[in-house]
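Table S5 (text form). Sequence records supplied for joint modeling of the two-component complex.
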Amino acid sequence: MTTITETLPAAHEPLYRGGVWSWITTVDHKRIGVLYGVTAFLFFLVGGLEALLMRIQLGSPENTFLDPVTYNELFTMHGTTMIFLAIMPLGAAAFNFMVPLQIGARDVAFPRLNAFSYWVFLFGALFLNASFLVKALGSANAVPDAGWFGYANLTSRQYSPGHGIDFWLFGLQILGIASLAAGFNFLVTILNLRAPGMSLMRMPVFTWMTMVVSTLIVLAFPVITVALFLLMFDRFFGTNFYIPAHGGDPILWQHLFWIFGHPEVYILILPAMGIVSEVIPTFSRKPLFGYAVVVYSGILIGVLGYGVWAHHMFSTGMGPIADAVFSVTTMLIAIPTGVKIFNWLATMWGGSIRFTTAMCFAIGFIAMFTMGGISGIMHSSPPADLQQTDTYFVVAHLHYVLFGGSILGLFAGFYYWWPKVTGRLLSERLGKLHFWTTMIAFNLTFFPQHFLGLNGMPRRIYTYSADLNFGFWNLVSTIGALMLGASVLIFMVNAILSLRRGAIAGDNPWDAATLEWSTSSPPPHYNFAVIPRVTSRLPLWDRHHPERMVDRPEDELKVVVAGKTLARTEVPDDDGESGTHHVPHMPNPSKYPVIAALGLTIAPIGVMLKPEHGIPVFLAVTLTGVLIMAYGIYSWALEPLEDH
Amino acid sequence: MRRALAPAHAFAMETETSTGLNNRKTVFWAFLGSECMFFASLISTYLVYKGRSVSGPYPTEILDIPVTSISTFDLLTSSLSMVLCLAAIERGDIKKFQFWLSCVIVGGLIFLGFQVYEFSHFVHKGLTLSKNLFGSSFFVLTGFHGTHVAVGVLWLISLLVLSLRGNMTKADALDVEIAGLYWHFVDIVWIIIFTVVYLLE
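The corresponding structure-token record, covering 845 residues in total, follows.
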């Protein structure tokens, strides 16, 4: 066996070096992934802090730590923050960094659109949280306080006269554009940028779930866009869509919101399912059991996710036929979900399991998500749901799904991919400590809420009377929440120590099978010196067993970049000629995405100023925003993507 | 051929793709899918509120089907111009391309002119955005459609300006094709809106 070695010149610059401007103008999917991850984690801390304040208030009956108005603001901002500013963008961070690597591409299909997504997300997040600043400056009702679902007609000008709902409605509108842009980008990236040989059914399951999530985003977000536009017209331009006095129907909001909102639930959970489908096979040293069925189940969950929205609305009195239909579809969706759970278990069955921290979080995900799923099936029965709706039972359910599911899955992904992103390993000892404190604290926080809910404690109340006997379990829940906060600190310590003095990870520390592990850690900015050629679902494991490869390579071709030997998974074509290759041309940095994003964020401020400052100010500010956005988009369209 | 060693300049943007479809065309179809959900939500809202206004003016008193039929005919005709415009640039016939592109732009502007007339006429007759549910749902639905037409007109004018500066060749036919997809979509949506708002009893 001969080895041909090709030498490529070193990359222009290391992946993360460079000043602030290089980060602002970056179009590199890996850097954007890091920006998404850091930003989303900061907002995860903000949302967590909001939760802790609420738990302290509820820790004892008739507590006066928070006043009711602040409490309403906190639960609204906690839900909105965790869903739109933490879990979704943490998923986006993983999509950004990993999907191009997993499919053997050099970047996403639209690198500048990708940068635009990030900046719109950041500005939308800041816009939403600017409400706290406005409140601190002395404006009443400036913080959203109508719940993350913003039910009409609580959001009407009559019942919410301040700017709180405006910050919420325009913040979500801006964030929706960020999500849509990312959804389009990843859908096309996965369809079109796969390396030669990577058929759809050879894609890693995480990539598959990213494609399903992107499709859900593309088809679900326009619905909430319309719902929010109608709300904007009601609040600023005198329409009557959600005003019952003029014939409007507040239930229309609920339908539109949940037609978006239920697919949104799957937008939050499917990335975690994808991560777990990568982690469990790697650490069981077995291919995923029933790959095709796992993929089809993920698709089926996405499709059925559009047919269950009204199970959020059983208590609105839709009538027996609608109740029955949505009850049945909700029960049906448990089938593909259960199929996935059994496939993960069957993957572990008989495997040679390594209990790394990532694996522990993945197993924790299965256990906790299953519990959340089962309480979900309990709600699918309208008579049971009528007892449980708007109680702490639902709070327990949704946290088992979103924390026990999404967040544990994302932590599994953190521990799994951290070495690829940073080039360094995390401490397994601190990781295990983080895992066990998280599991204990999480169950301590949320399991008692099942009891509280079934005993009749309603959601969204700032306090309760002592003689209701809710005090004990609320205290347990509060202690658990404080522990959960401490466990996140352990994670942060682990991350900081790893960045300072973590062991060097190497290309493939876990002996994983997918393409992201074939390049260096962190990868060069062009990802792959040569685009890999894929012959199976587990390209890197096949290299351990060359006898099993269909097209056995006569020559192992290696590529040396900057003194590093990059492995190749593909079989070279007939010619064996060697020579020096140029570093691949990559897209240029661009300042226009951030300019367009800025204009987009300025435009709604004008609308918000309309009630107090009149139409001229509204038009001046909004048109300024629109013109800045137009300048950004035109310059972007006319700017060449790369040098020739 | 060194097919395996992907070309050194291969950032996959404009090169061959896994599906064989151009990236920009693929993303545009996805965008149109998203737009379908957008207009489906608006049209559903209109249908839900049909006949539920608690005060007049009601649709039958105010809608002028013959007038809007003319603007509908104009908009649909502009789609034909769009087809001829794309065919011209694909042949490399820039003069014909500019002519048909101008026809589409004029068609779009005429439609917008009709809409401005219709809106101001309705306001004179007392139907405003805040008057009743019909006013709210009518103006928001047709207004969003009109905004789409206006964006399309700006887009096509941009292409015309590029072309008059000599920057459009046969190689840029894809730019025209994508603008054309958008234009046809906006037309098709109008057929549905016209049927739902004007023709349905």
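Note: Residues 78 and 131 of chain B are 33 Å apart (CA to CA).
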